Structure formats: C-alpha cells, structure tokens
Amino acid sequence: MSKFALLFLMVFFGGVAATFFYSGAASFILYQVVYFLNPDDRWWSSQIPGISYSFICSLLMIFSLALGYKRYSRISPWKMNPVFKWVVALVLIYYFAYFFAVDLPVHKRFTFDFLKLAIVIMVAYKLLHSEKSLDAAIWGYVIGATYIGYLATITGRNAGDRVEGIGLVDAPEANGTAAALVPAAAFLMYYAWLGDKKIKLLCMLCGGLIANGLVLINSRGSFLGVVVGGGAFLLIMMFSRHRQKGQRAMAIIIAVIGIVGFLSVADDSFWDRMRTMTNPENKAESGSGRIDYWLATFDLVEDHPMGVGVQGYNRLAELYLGEEYRNKSVHSLWFQGLSEVGWLGISVFLGLIITAYRHSRKARKWLLHEGDINNYFKVRAIECGLLSYLVAGSFINQFRSQVLYWMILLLAVAIKFYYLRHIATESVPSTSILQRRKVAS
User: Fold this and answer.
1) Interatomic CA distance for residues 184 and 195, integer angstroms
2) Which of 144, 137, 143, 236 is nearest to 190 (CA)?
3) Phi first, then psi: what are they for 162, rounded to 5°?
4) Which end of the chain is more exposed for a tag (fewer CB within 10 A), N or C?
5) How many CA atoms lie within 13 Å of 235's alpha carbon, on the beta-carbon side?
6) pTM of the full structure
7) Backbone phi, psi, residue 171, to 5°
8) Burial of residue 232 (number of CB atoms within 10 Å: 0-12, 13-18, 19+)
9) Is 162 helix (H, G, I), strand (E, B) or coil?
10) Half-sphere exposure of 25 (CA within 13 A, CB side)
11) 318-330 as b/e, with b when 16 or more CB fall inside 10 Å?
12) Rounded to an integer, what distance in angstroms lies between the CA atom of residue 124 and that of residue 35?
C-alpha cells in the first residue's frame, strides 16, 4: 500500500473517531478533507476500499447532529439565520425548473446533487457549534487547498502550459480547481497576522504551495480572484481605523513576503498567459469571447424567462451563437445561474449574497461594540474569501460548487456567533460578552 493511501485511511478513520469522541464538527472537517483528497480519482484509489467516502461523511454528519441535536441547536436554529431561507428557496426553484429544463435527466441529477450540498451546509451550520470549530473548518479548507497546491507541484504542467487531471468532484477541469484555492489567500493572511511562530510558519508553507499551484494551473480568473479578494483584505488590514498597534507593519511584511514568494514561483509561461488578458481583440487567446457567451444569455432568457435548466445553455448555444458554438458553456457562475433558473433564480442568489453581507456587517458592528477586534477581522477575512471566489467564478461555471457554499456557510456561522447569539442572549442582565458566551454555551 502506498504512503498516500495509508495516510488517507489514517485521516479518514481518525476523523470518524474524532466525531464520536471529540465533536460532531469533526465530521464536517473530514468531509472537507475528503472533498479535496478526492480519493476516487487519485492514482492511489485502487489501493483503498472502493466506497463512497464523501457519502459516509455526510451520513456521519447527520448521525452526529441527530445524537446531539439539543446541544447543537441551542443557539443555532436555522430559522434565525435568514441566509438559509434563501438557500432553501434556491433549491426549490431548481426543482420547479423541472417544468422548463431542456435536458431533464441532467437537470434532475445535478439538482439532486445541489439538494445534497444544501443539506450538508445546513447540518454543518449546527455542528460548528463553537468558535474553535469555526476556526477548524477554515483550517480544514486551507489544508485541503494546500494538498491541491502540493499535487499541482509534484505533477507539473502536463497539458501545455497548465496542470490538468488533479481536479475535484465538482470542478474536474483546471479553472474550477484553481478557483477552489483562491479564498485561502485572505484566511492565510489573517492567521499569519494573529498566529504564533508555528502558525506563521505553517501559513508560509501553505501559502507557498497554494501560490505555486495557482501558477502551474495558470487560471486568469483565479489570478483576478486572488488580487481582488486577497488585496481587499490586505488593504482592510492596513487602512482600517480599527486596526491594532503594529497591524499595518505586519500587513506590509505579509504583503512583501507574499509578493516575493509569488514572484519566485511565477514563471514566463504564467506571465505570458496573464498578458493575454490585455489583448481583447484576439478572442480565442484572451478569453474575451466569453462576453459573447454572456450576452447571448440575455437573448436566451428573453425566450425562456424561467431558465432552461442545468446544461440547457449548452444544448441551445448554437441557436444563439451559431453552429460553431455547439455545446458551448456560458463560462460564468452569474450567467450560468441566469440561464439555468432564470430571473427568479438569479434574483434569489443575489438576495442570498446580499443578506449574508448585511448580517455579517451587523456582526462586525457588534464585535466592534464589544471591542473584539480579532474576530472583527476574522469576519472580514471570510467576507473577502467569498468575494474572491465570486470574482474567480465569474469566468467559470461554478454556480453550484461546494467551495462557494462553504464560504457562505462560514459567513453564516460567523453571523451566528457574533450577531445572532447576541440577539438570543440580550435578555441576560450581564453586559459582559464572556458571560453571555458562557450562558449561550
């Protein structure tokens, strides 16, 4: 048995044991790790039992919640967090789209997958019952992204100027894989700022592998996602009026180390591909032809205002773009959502994002009121992680991707701890945040 297969089995059964003997939150962390390890598609898959590890993790999550439902639900009823009302509404719209789907069998299959994803994040919302579990979930994502960066590093470019064949279950191609790594930038900056020497060293190791993976995968959209989301968090750290003593200097050090490290791994092939973004005249080279795909979506929804279901755009692309565009994808999560579930569906998705942001802003205000600056910036990091994925996803079909809804989940959990818990315990006479947290737990 290879070392990778043995390591995977140790991680898997260790996660199962942690679920039963430590916390149900471990089952979601295990789910994240299994997602990134993607054992079914790795070269060492033949050396482990051929079972659905992701499905087992999902069942483990549900079982853990059932066993400790009262404890996990004490401060986290789903109805208190409006984010999940939008999630449920979006799932129902996908089922309603059965009446309009052009390719009904495909639409049914992916709608069921989306339902399973919604169930997973709603169960995880309750299982992540402490602030430590929120940190663990963030690190679970970061470690998984680091593995993909490591896999890209040892694989090397095997498809021209890109790495292929290391993808994820719902993002098998290079651009989707790269987008899954993008939110890690904001999280690593946050923990590098607050962590001790060991955490800072770990952040540098993870950041180096992830950056090298992004360079090797060579995704222009993901590069923009890192620049926008990671850059936004760096600017917040440097110029926020709520920054702490020495924070700006630390942000500058992180920026310098990050830039130097990135430049050290960025090769000529990477920069050649990035330069194609400035050549819009050459649509094939720059990818600017995607604008034509996006504009065609408006023509499609003019004829089909309720959408055409999953991969309906692909089936109808030649009618709106020409015969040479047969089976073409729309290449944007925004326009993918618009084409699949129409104006109603994309409006619900926008409502989801806006609601999550509005309530995270309330959480930030409450944290500032309590003087909890560290967690204030944690919420900011999660916001920037979500922003970075939305930017990267603007150029690929990832409207129903796991990582996108994980970012929404992490923000919802932060809202639970730093805002909704305040609402639930505001009748307690004490004004001490520590006492309120003790009551809530």
Assistant:
1) 16
2) 236
3) -140, 165
4) N
5) 7
6) 0.91
7) -145, 65
8) middle
9) strand
10) 21
11) eebbeeebeebbb
12) 15
